[in-house]
C-alpha cells in the first residue's frame, strides 16, 4: 500500500495532537473493534474554531486525516468548518489508498460530532437560563 | 540507515550458498524430460534436489513432488483428496474434512471453496495459545471423514501443533492426514515417518530458497487427484516442464537447512526470547501471542495495547526495521487477524499485534536496535491514543 508523501509527513509529525483542558465540544467516533477511534476537542470563540486538538487510535491514514482536519478548520467559522467533507480532507493529503477512504470519513464525522456537542451544550445552557 | 529485516515468516533472503548454485545453473536449459544430454544434465540436477528435499524430511525421493510452492501444495491436497466435491474413485472414502480455524488462507479458503461444492468441513477451534486439542480432532471424526489437514507451525504466532498425536488419530481411523509444514520445515526437525503424515507441504522461499517453488510429500501408495493434469512430469502427479532452476535452488536450500538447523534453532530461540523479554521490560502492557515455549524458533507475535499495528509498522519502517502485522489496516481486509481472534484475543488488542520473525541474518545487534527504537514509538502512539489513560 502506498501512501502519499503528505500522508506520511502528517503521520510522522501530527499537528494539534492532544487534549484541550476545558473544551467547548468533544466528538468521538469509530470503535476499537474496527481499529479506528478518533476524538476531537474544540474550543469555540465567537462561533469560530479558536482551537482544535485530536487523539486517534488507528492506522497511518486515520492519524494523518485527523491531523489534516485540525489544520483545515483551525480559525474557521463553524459553518464553514462543517462544510469540509471527507473527500476534501483526503484531497488535501494528496489522496488516500481506496481501502483507506473510510478513515477520512471518520475525521469529518468527528469534527461534526464535536460541533454538535458544542451546540447542544450551548442550547442546554441557554434553556437553563 | 541501519536496516533490520524481521519478516522472515513472510519470506527469506536467498542463502549465499543457494545463490551460488543458482548462478552456476543459469545456462542449464535442457528439458528434464528430454532423452538427450541436455535433458539428462537437467534431470540429474532435479533428482539431486529431490534427494536433498527428501533427506530433510526423512522421506524417499520418489515421495517428493515438486510444485510452485506452499499455496499449490495446500490447494492440491484439499482439492485432490475431496475431488472438489465430485464423485470420483478417490472421494469414495467420504466427503467430510477436518481442519482448523487458524490455517493459512491457502488451506482455509480452499476448504471454503470445496465446502461450497458440497464437501462438509469442520473448522476446529484453538485454545488461548493457538493450540489444537487432539481430543477435539478425535471427537470431530465421522464415518465419512476423508481428510484431516492441520498446520505444523502457525505463520502468525508460531505455535507448533501436536502433529504426531493428531496423525496417530487419523491413522487409527484410516483417514488421510496432511500437514502444512511451510513454516516448520528447516526450522525444527520434521520427519514424515516419525510423524506419520500422508501429505506434507513445504515451500522454497521460507527456507532461504527461491520463490515460486516448493514440494509436496505424498506417502507411497496414497492416491490423490492431480491439481494440474497434462504430461507425465513428477510421476504424473504434477504436469508441466520442471522449474529446473527453482528446483535446484530448493534442493540446495534443503541441504543447507539440514546442516544449519540445530545451531540456528538454538540461536534464534534465544534471540526471539531476548527480544520479547526486552520489550516487555521496556513497554508496559505488552503481551506475547502464541505458545510461550512450543513455538517456532524465530517467531514472536507481540501485542501492544492502545495502539494500532499499522502505525507501529510504518514508524518502524521509517527506522529501517521490517516487521508485519496481522492487523486490519495493512492487509486488504479490515478484519483483524483470524488467528488472533480464534485464540480469543479481543479485536482491539489484535489490532495492535506485531509479528517479529527472525532469521539467519539477524544478530544480537539487530535485537538491540529494535529494543532501542520500538519503545519510544509505542509511547508516542499511546500519547496520541484516546484509549490510553495518560499518566
Ligand atoms: C503456513 C503457510 N502455508 C502456506 C504458505 C504459502 O506458501 P507460498 O507462498 O509458497 O505459496 C505460507 C506462506 O505465506 C505459510 O506461511
Ligand atoms: Zn484505518
What's the topology here?
The complex is a heterodimer of chains A (about 130) and B (about 400).
Chain A: H1 5-12, E1 25-31, E2 36-45, E3 48-57, H2 60-73, H3 78-82, H4 86-92, H5 101-127
Antiparallel strand pairs in A: 1-2, 2-3
Chain B: E1 4-5, H1 16-25, H2 37-56, E2 64-67, H3 70-82, E3 96-100, H4 105-116, E4 120-124, H5 134-140, E5 145-149, H6 163-172, E6 176-180, H7 192-195, E7 199-203, E8 214-218, H8 244-282, E9 286-289, E10 299-304, H9 309-318, E11 321-322, E12 324-325, H10 338-342, H11 347-350, E13 353-357, H12 364-384
Parallel strand pairs in B: 1-11, 3-4, 3-5, 5-6, 6-7
Antiparallel strand pairs in B: 2-8, 7-8, 9-10, 10-13, 12-13
The complex binds pyridoxal-5'-phosphate and zinc ion.
Give structural notes.
- The complex is a heterodimer of chains A (129) and B (391).
- Helix content of chain A is 47%, strand content 21%.
- Chain A has helices spanning 5-12, 60-73, 78-82, 86-92, 101-127; strands at 25-31, 36-45, 48-57.
- Chain A has one domain: Sufe protein. Chain: A.
- In chain A, helix 1 crosses helix 2 (60-73), helix 2 (60-73) packs across helix 5 (101-127) and helix 4 (86-92) crosses helix 5.
- Chain B is 40% helix and 14% strand.
- Chain B has helices at 16-25, 37-56, 70-82, 105-116, 134-140, 163-172, 192-195, 244-282, 309-318, 338-342, 347-350, 364-384; strands spanning 4-5, 64-67, 96-100, 120-124, 145-149, 176-180, 199-203, 214-218, 286-289, 299-304, 321-322, 324-325, 353-357.
- The mean pLDDT of chain B is 94.
- The chains are: A alpha+beta (129), B alpha/beta (391).
- The interface between A and B is medium-sized, with 30 and 25 residues.
- Zinc ion is lined by residues 35-36, 58-59, 61-62, 100, 103 of chain A.
Summarize the structure.
The complex is a heterodimer of chains A (129) and B (391). Chain A is of the alpha+beta class and 129 residues long. Helix content of chain A is 47%, strand content 21%.
Amino acid at each position: 500500500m502506498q501512501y502519499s508523501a503528505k500522508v506520511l509527513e502528517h503521520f510522522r509529525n501530527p499537528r494539534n495532537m492532544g487534549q484541550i483542558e476545558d473544551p467547548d465540544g468533544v466528538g468521538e467516533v469509530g470503535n476499537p473493534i474496527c481499529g479506528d477511534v478518533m476524538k476531537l476537542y474544540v474550543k469555540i470563540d465567537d462561533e469560530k474554531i479558536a482551537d482544535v486538538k485530536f487523539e486517534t487510535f488507528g492506522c497511518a491514514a486515520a492519524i494523518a486525516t485527523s491531523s489534516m482536519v485540525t489544520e483545515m478548520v483551525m480559525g474557521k467559522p463553524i459553518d464553514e468548518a462543517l462544510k469540509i467533507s471527507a473527500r476534501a480532507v483526503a484531497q488535501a493529503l494528496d489522496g488516500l489508498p481506496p481501502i483507506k477512504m473510510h478513515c477520512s470519513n471518520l475525521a469529518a464525522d468527528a469534527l461534526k460530532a464535536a460541533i454538535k456537542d458544542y451546540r447542544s451544550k450551548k442550547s442546554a445552557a441557554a434553556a437553563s437560563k | 540507515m541501519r536496516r533490520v529485516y524481521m519478516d522472515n515468516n513472510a519470506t527469506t533472503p536467498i542463502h549465499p550458498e543457494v545463490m551460488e548454485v543458482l548462478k552456476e545453473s543459469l545456462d542449464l536449459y535442457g528439458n528434464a524430460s528430454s532423452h538427450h544430454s541436455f535433458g539428462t544434465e537437467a534431470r540429474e540436477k532435479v533428482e539431486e534436489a529431490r534427494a536433498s528435499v527428501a533427506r530433510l524430511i526423512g522421506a524417499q525421493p520418489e515421495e517428493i513432488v515438486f510444485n510452485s510452492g506452499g499455496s499449490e501444495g495446500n490447494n492440491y491436497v484439499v482439492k485432490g483428496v475431496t475431488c472438489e466435491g465430485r464423485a470420483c474413485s478417490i472421494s469414495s472414502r467420504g466427503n467430510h474434512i477436518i481442519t482448523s480455524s487458524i490455517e493459512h488462507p491457502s488451506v482455509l479458503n480452499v476448504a471454503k471453496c470445496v465446502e461450497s461444492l458440497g464437501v462438509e468441513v469442520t473448522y476446529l477451534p484453538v485454545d488461548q495459545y493457538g493450540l489444537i486439542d487432539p481430543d477435539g480432532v478425535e471427537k470431530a471424526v465421522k464415518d465419512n471423514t476423508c481428510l484431516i489437514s492441520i498446520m505444523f507451525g502457525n505463520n502468525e504466532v508460531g505455535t507448533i501443533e501436536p502433529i504426531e498425536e493428531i496423525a496417530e488419530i487419523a491413522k487409527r481411523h484410516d483417514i488421510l492426514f496432511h500437514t502444512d509444514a511451510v513454516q516448520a520445515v528447516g526450522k525444527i526437525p520434521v520427519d514424515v515417518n516419525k510423524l506419520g503424515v500422508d501429505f506434507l507441504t513445504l515451500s522454497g522461499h521460507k527456507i532461504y530458497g527461491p520463490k515460486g517453488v516448493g514440494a509436496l510429500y505424498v506417502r507411497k501408495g496414497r492416491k490423490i487427484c492431480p491439481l494440474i493434469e497434462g504430461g507425465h512430469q513428477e510421476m504424473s502427479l504434477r504436469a508441466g516442464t520442471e522449474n529446473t532452476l527453482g528446483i535446484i535452488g530448493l534442493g540446495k536450500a534443503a541441504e543447507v537447512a539440514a546442516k544449519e538447523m540445530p545451531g540456528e534453532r538454538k540461536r534464534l530461540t534465544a534471540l526471539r526470547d531476548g527480544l520479547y523479554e526486552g520489550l516487555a521490560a521496556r513497554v508496559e502492557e505488552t503481551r506475547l501471542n502464541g505458545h510461550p515455549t512450543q513455538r517456532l524458533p524465530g517467531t514472536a507475535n507481540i501485542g501492544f495495547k492502545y495502539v494500532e499495528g499499522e502505525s507501529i509498522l510504518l514508524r518502524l519502517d521509517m527506522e529501517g526495521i521490517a516487521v508485519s502485522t496481522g492487523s486490519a489496516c495493512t492487509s486488504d481486509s479490515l478484519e483483524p487477524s483470524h488467528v488472533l481472534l480464534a485464540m480469543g484475543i479481543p479485536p482491539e488488542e489484535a489490532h495492535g499485534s506485531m509479528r517479529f520473525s527472525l532469521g539467519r541474518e539477524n544478530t544480537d545487534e539487530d535485537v538491540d536496535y529494535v529494543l532501542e527504537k520500538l519503545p519510544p514509538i509505542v509511547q508516542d502512539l499511546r500519547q496520541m491514543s484516546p484509549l490510553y489513560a495518560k499518566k
